[in-house]
């Protein structure tokens, strides 16, 4: 199985390219120890837009222990096929090649805004909207990944690529449309950034903003059967982001409260010592 990162491919030989998730899920489904999974990533760390180097190192080691072979710093450049047309190898940009029986390729996506070029106002690679997802054109709304909207809690314009926001922004737009039809009003969209993933026995959640200084707490030993650890991000003396691997439902809710409230943090050392208990008392 081959998986490419920055783009992703899965080698029974199974090869994914881009982020590791497709490869991990397929390897987990195989579950017979006979498959080989390579993850090919142009990035030097896993999920660099979200993870710190320490968090990325945990997942890379955990996946490696599960049989995933991670190849970093290159991308897939082409494929070779058997005479019957089935895939044979994945060729890498650095000159190497990998045998593959199955290849999964995820090349990512960009907002498709070309259709509306010159017709609606754009910002930061998306279609600019207000807090109700109205565009600059009357009766035209944009939701999900394509919308650049005011993120109220941070006071700036952002475009968010996640299913959670896609669902909630669509809900907000529908509420705004229905309210306008009835002469009513709805509150402005007040979104808390949220990301999550599950693979093997792992499950993590992240809330808020991953900016400023970060601190790691808990047990992040990838060899332990049930690792449980987290991280906080602190900017201008306030906790602005929170992450937890292996957290309970209540603990994950506490993380969300912390990221939303942005409480003051007296010291990074104290945060490290308190760990999840800091979030639990908010």
Write up this protein.
This protein is an alpha/beta fold. It has three domains: 104 residues, 3-Layer(bba) Sandwich (FAD/NAD(P)-binding domain), CATH 3.50.50; 68 residues, FAD/NAD(P)-binding domain (3-Layer(bba) Sandwich); 87 residues, FAD/NAD-linked reductase, C-terminal dimerisation domain (Enolase-like, domain 1, 2-Layer Sandwich). It has six helices and 17 strands. Strands 1, 2, 3, 4 and 8 form a five-stranded parallel sheet that branches. Strands 13-14-17-16-15 form a five-stranded antiparallel sheet. The chain has a four-stranded mixed sheet with strand order 9-10-11-12, with no helix packed on it. The chain is flat, with a radius of gyration of 21 Å. It starts with a strand and ends with a helix. The N terminus is likely disordered. Belongs to the FAD-dependent oxidoreductase family. It holds the Pfam family Pyr_redox_2. Its cofactor is FAD. GO terms for molecular function: monodehydroascorbate reductase (NADH) activity. This is monodehydroascorbate reductase (NADH).
What is the subunit organization of this protein? Answer: single chain
Number of domains: 3
Strand content: 25-35%
Helical amount? 10-25%
The largest sheet is: 5 strands, parallel
> How would the global form be characterised?
flat
- Individual helix count: 6
Keywords: FAD, Flavoprotein, NAD, NADP, Oxidoreductase, Redox-active center
Protein name: monodehydroascorbate reductase (NADH)
Family: Belongs to the FAD-dependent oxidoreductase family.
Domain FAD/NAD(P)-binding: 49-169
């Amino acid at each position: 199985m081959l998986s490419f990162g920055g783009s992703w491919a899965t080698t029974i030989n199974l090869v994914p390219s881009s982020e590791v998730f497709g490869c991990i899920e397929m390897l987990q489904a195989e579950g017979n120890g006979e498959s080989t999974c390579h993850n090919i990533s142009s990035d030097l760390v896993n999920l660099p837009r979200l993870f710190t180097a320490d968090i990325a190192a945990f997942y890379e080691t955990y996946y490696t222990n599960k049989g995933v072979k991670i190849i970093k710093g290159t991308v897939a450049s082409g494929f070779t096929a058997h005479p019957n047309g089935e895939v044979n190898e994945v060729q890498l940009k650095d000159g190497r090649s990998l045998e593959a029986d199955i290849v999964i390729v995820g090349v990512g996506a960009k907002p498709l805004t070309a259709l509306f070029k010159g017709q609606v106002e754009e910002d930061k690679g998306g279609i600019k909207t207000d807090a109700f997802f109205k565009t600059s054109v009357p009766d035209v709304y944009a939701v999900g990944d394509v919308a650049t909207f005011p993120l109220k809690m941070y006071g700036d314009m952002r475009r968010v690529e996640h299913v959670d926001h896609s669902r909630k922004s669509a809900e907000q737009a529908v509420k705004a449309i229905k309210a306008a039809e009835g002469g009513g009003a709805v509150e402005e969209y007040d979104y808390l950034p949220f990301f999550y993933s599950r693979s093997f026995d792992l499950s993590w959640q992240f809330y808020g903003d991953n900016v400023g200084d970060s601190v790691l707490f808990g047990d992040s030993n990838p060899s332990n059967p049930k690792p449980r650890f987290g991280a906080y991000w602190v900017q201008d003396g306030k906790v602005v982001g929170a992450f937890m691997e292996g957290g309970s439902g209540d603990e994950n809710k506490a993380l969300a409260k912390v990221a939303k409230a942005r409480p003051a943090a007296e010291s990074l050392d104290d945060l490290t010592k308190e760990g999840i208990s800091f979030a639990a008392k908010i």
